[in-house]
Amino acid sequence: MATDPCIVRLAERDDLLVLTRLVELVPDLTAEQLSSVQRATWDRMMATDDLTIYLAEYDGEPVGYTASLQMPHLTYRCRPTVFVESMRVLEAHRRRGVARRMLQRLLADAQAAGCQKVQLVTHKRHAEDGAHDLYRSQGFIAEAEGFRLYLE
Fold first, then answer.
1. Is 51 helix (H, G, I), strand (E, B) or coil?
2. Cα–chain center distance at 141
């Protein structure tokens, strides 16, 4: 039986360089080039209990990531909501099931944690590149209109 070339794991403290390479799309970034802001932000992320970073590896190579944040609140019988933010798969590895596997892992973790719902916001431009089709295939329904305000 062949093994699956794609695995999705939780990012660990020593994954800062790997994740920054994926986020910045700079595969040859070195640890010395990481900024103090990136290091401090990663430390803060790793210290946030309800923040989960998923790292996808294809044949052992890091090729994608996504993040989720579980928000507790008093609605939905006190069951939390998970927010998905910042999903990326390197272009050369798209259409191989990487994003689907990340979403499946995230959804399984949310269900195991007793969450009521999972929300994600995606840009309208992704209606043409297959992302919206992916989300629908995993059970997401486009039922709300979202708004953003960038504070820069």
1. strand
2. 18
Strands 61-71, 81-89: pairing is antiparallel
CA 33, 93, 100, 145 torsion: positive or negative? positive
Q: Round to whole Å and give the CA distance between 86 and 117.
A: 18
- Run of H or E including 54: strand 51-58
Interatomic CA distance for residues 101 and 54, integer angstroms: 10
* Segment 35-61, tens digit of pLDDT: 999 999 999 999 999 999 999 999 999
Structure token digits, residue 103: 């979403």
Rounded Cα gap, residues 17 and 47, in angstroms: 17
Judged by DSSP in three states, 87 sits in strand
